[in-house]
Design a protein that fits this description.
Structural class: alpha+beta
Strand order of the largest sheet: 1-7-6-5-4-3-2
Largest sheet: 7 strands, antiparallel
Order of helices and strands: EHHEEEEEEH
Number of strands: 7
Radius of gyration: 15 Å
Shape: globular
Number of helices: 3
Helix content: 25-40%
Length: 149
C-alpha cells in the first residue's frame, strides 16, 4: 500500500538558495538523519545531481537505493531506480515559489511504497517522521547557509 503525504512551509531565504541546498545532495547527511553514504553518480548538463546512490533509513529499516533526480528552476524531483529490501519505491518533489523578496514557499509531496508488512499507522508514522526531517532539517540548513553568505 503506497502512502502519499504533502507538507507546505516557508523558509526565510530566496528560491535560488533553497534549490542550491537541495542540489547539494552530498550534504544531505548533515541535515537529514534519514540519509547516509550519499554519492553523486551522474550530473546533468547544469552540474546538478541526476543519479544518486544513498543509504536511506527510517525507524528500523535501511535501504541502499539509487535515485533519479530532475531539477528545474523551481523544483527538485526524486524517484528510486531500484527496489530496496524495505521499499518497492519512494520519491517526491519539492516545489518552490517566491514569497516576498527573500522568502520561499516550499511544497513537498512524497510517496513511499513499502515492501515490508507493517501496520498502516507504523508506515504513516515513518512518513510523518520523514516530513518532519525535511521541514526542520532543510529549513535549518538553508538558514545556516544564508547566514554564512
Amino acid at each position: 500500500m503506497a502512502i502519499n503525504e504533502s507538507l507546505e512551509f516557508d523558509i526565510d531565504a530566496p528560491v535560488s538558495l533553497v534549490l542550491d541546498t537541495l542540489a547539494d545532495v552530498d550534504a544531505l547527511p548533515d541535515w537529514s538523519s534519514a540519509h547516509s553514504n550519499v554519492k553523486v553518480v551522474e550530473r546533468d548538463a547544469n552540474g546538478r545531481p541526476s543519479v544518486v546512490d544513498a543509504s536511506v533509513g527510517l525507524m528500523m529499516f535501511t535501504d541502499n537505493l539509487t535515485f533519479d533526480y530532475v531539477f528545474t528552476d523551481t523544483s527538485c524531483k526524486w524517484d528510486t531506480r531500484n527496489e530496496g529490501t524495505a521499499v518497492r519505491s519512494q520519491g517526491g518533489i519539492y516545489e518552490l515559489s517566491p514569497k516576498g523578496d527573500d522568502q520561499t514557499h516550499v511544497k513537498v509531496t512524497m510517496y513511499l511504497d513499502p515492501k515490508v508488512k507493517a501496520p498502516g499507522f507504523v508506515v504513516k508514522k515513518g512518513i510523518k517522521l520523514a516530513m518532519d526531517i525535511i521541514k526542520n532539517g532543510l529549513s535549518k540548513e538553508v538558514l545556516k547557509r544564508k547566514s554564512a553568505a
